[in-house]
Amino acid sequence: MSNGTTPNWLQALERRLGRLAVPNIATFIVGLQFIGFVLVVSDPDWRWRLALIPESVLQGEIWRLITFLALPISLSPFWLLFVLWFLYFIVDGIENAWGAFRTTFYILISVLLTICFSLVFMVPITYVGDLESTLFLAAAALNPEYQILLFLVLPVKIAWLAWLTGAFVLWRFFTGSWVDRLYLLAIYSNYLLFFAPYLYWRVKQRYRRWQFKRQLR
């Protein structure tokens, strides 16, 4: 993966706070997901014990600020293996491109803003699939030409899947309630912060090439 999408301000921040990085954070995230799966499968009530419930946090159950990340994305053993493999693949790929600090910071922004959204608007967080989605979008932006096997058979460029993911997020944004919109802004703000200037630059470059080709006709 190329790291040409790294914002300049992030490079400056890394020089100051680089020691706070979490190396191989993919293992940490996948490990939490696996633990959450085992707990919820053994007792479905664990889903609510792990969830980020604002009222419970304010009553002293601070561990929910971390344990909600263990909420399993899937309860199917087969799909869980695929999800965990894919999650490790994309996070490890991001870390290989950016390094441990930048990857940690990217994840931390999304997690912290999700927590703030939950506590401010008193909305419980019982699903973390959108966090994986932000990671997938980052991996696609860093290496848009990479191909993955859809359903383990069909080769598809990761950028195409990212466009579909982005379209689905926009659909949810425009059709959801104002609370849904605030949630999406909170959890996807890391992607916008890191990649919006770069994506704008790419669109601008393509537009200029299109204008240039028109002038040659």
Structure write-up:
This protein is mainly alpha-helical and 217 residues long. Helices cover 72% and strands 4% of the residues. The chain contains 10 helices and 2 strands. The protein has helices at residues 8-17, 25-42, 46-50, 54-58, 64-67, 77-98, 100-121, 129-142, 158-175, 178-216; strands at residues 147-150, 154-157. The chain has a two-stranded antiparallel sheet with strand order 1-2. α6 crosses α7 (100-121), α6 crosses α8 and α8 (129-142) runs parallel beside α10 (178-216). The radius of gyration is 19 Å and the shape is globular.
- Round the mean pLDDT to the nearest integer and report it: 84
Strand content: under 5%
Structural classification = mainly alpha
- Proportion of residues in helical segments: over 70%
Q: Going across the major beta sheet, what is the strand order?
A: 1-2
- Through-space gap between termini: 36 Å
| Biggest sheet character | 2 strands, antiparallel
Task: Tell me the overall shape.
Answer: globular
Order of helices and strands: HHHHHHHHEEHH
Poorly predicted tracts of residues: none
Q: Rg from C-alpha positions?
A: 19 Å
Overall number of strands: 2
State the helix count: 10
